[in-house]
Amino acid sequence: MKQIHITDFQNSDLDLHDSLLEDVKISYGRKNVIIFLILPKSPPLRDSEERAKLIIENTSYFVMSLKEPWGKGTYIVSEEIKNCANDQLKLIITLNSGDTIEIAGAKISLTDNI
Tens digit of pLDDT for each residue in 38-89? Predict the structure, then answer.
């Protein structure tokens, strides 16, 4: 599991380019967001596609557009992580549809344990 914390992150810590977004699960009570992905084949890291979860914990903000301004698509074009208020990280994901997902949370983890 790769974890990203407010004190020690680089935008290169997550490389989600060309990952397929399968689903998004929000738990209001737990204050977390789970994004289910299929990571692309990427030798030498992965010899085949791999299912993964992107988990954002202690979430305080979540917005996702569903307008598809560039047409249909569910692949990640880019992701960016920024510091934001209250010791949180803001993750911005852009899909090949032109839609974006913006989430602020205390910790971001990427795991292949699903």
Answer: 999 877 777 889 999 999 999 999 999 999 999 999 999 999 998 888 889 9
Give the DSSP per-residue string, 53-81.
EEEEES--EEEE----TT-S--BEEEEEE
What value, to the nearest 5°, has the Cα angle with vertex 62 and ends 75 and 22?
A: 30
Instruction: Provide the token pair at 66.
Output: 């569903």
| CB-CB contact of 103 with 89 (8 Å) | no
pTM above 0.85, yes or no: yes
CA angle 89, 20, 92 (to 5 degrees): 20
Tokens 């977390």 — which residue? 32
Positive/negative CA dihedral, 32, 70, 72, 46: negative
